[in-house]
Write a structure and sequence with these properties.
This protein is mainly alpha-helical and 228 residues long. 82% of the residues lie in helices and 6% in strands. The relative contact order is 0.14. This is DUF106 domain-containing protein.
């Protein structure tokens, strides 16, 4: 009876999460369409030059620095809002519950315990709801930062296509074409940009977690000391 009362409150939450996922997927397809269509991509990148060229372009003279700085800027823009919208304690708890659930399910299948399997399957819906709610809160700031990400990526794509001199010196090659060279299937310039983005995002998030959690632990210690 209690499960039936909880479902109406849970279903809208799952529906909202699925809608957010659909928006991100639709936006990703839109970005692919814009990049693949020169009649839209090139004029848009040209207009964005007025904004990003003075800040990050360096008049095409330092393309490696442009790529790394672009990745750093996007890493900062994406990691800082995401940190404050993420419940890290709840995320850790959810991950622990998920690991324990998967372990219990494996043991139930190995032992052939049908009753335990059915019980765990009933708990699966609530676990999925908790994960969806946590993911939805984490994705909220990305709804805003995604717009900036799309604009700067379109500008960077056009920047690399219109760069005046495409050859740069790297440790493994002193005469490397940065536009046509690839790492496996990914263009080299995109790999450098992604590396800067992920590295800075991870570093900034780790620092913020360390500072924030240290402050909270000290506050708990002070509160405990006052209560004695």
């Amino acid at each position: 009876m209690q499960q039936g009362n909880n479902r109406p409150a849970q279903n809208p939450q799952m529906t909202k999460f699925m809608m957010i996922e659909f928006v991100f997927m639709f936006a990703g397809l839109g970005l692919i369409f814009i990049i693949s269509d020169p009649s839209i991509r090139n004029p848009l990148g040209h207009y964005l030059n007025y904004v990003f060229m003075p800040l990050l372009g360096f008049n095409y003279e330092l393309p490696i620095l442009t790529l790394m700085l672009t990745g750093i800027v996007l890493g900062l823009i994406s990691s800082i809002p995401r940190y404050f919208f993420t419940d890290w304690l709840k995320m850790g708890k959810t991950q622990m519950i998920s690991k324990a659930y998967q372990k219990a399910m494996r043991e139930a299948y190995r032992s052939g315990d049908r009753a335990r399997q059915q019980k765990l399957q009933k708990l699966s819906m609530q676990r999925q709801m908790d994960q969806a709610a946590l993911s939805m809160n984490t994705m909220k700031p990305l709804m805003v930062t995604e717009i900036f990400f799309f604009l700067i990526f379109i500008w960077l794509y056009v920047f690399m296509l219109t760069i005046h001199y495409q050859y740069v010196s790297m440790p493994w090659d002193l005469n490397l074409n940065i536009v046509t060279s690839k790492i496996y299937i990914m263009p080299l310039w995109m790999a450098l940009y992604t590396l800067g983005n992920l590295a800075v995002g991870y570093f900034v998030t780790s620092i913020m977690k360390f500072v924030d959690f240290t402050y909270k632990l000290r506050k708990l210690d002070d509160d405990s000391a006052r209560s004695l």
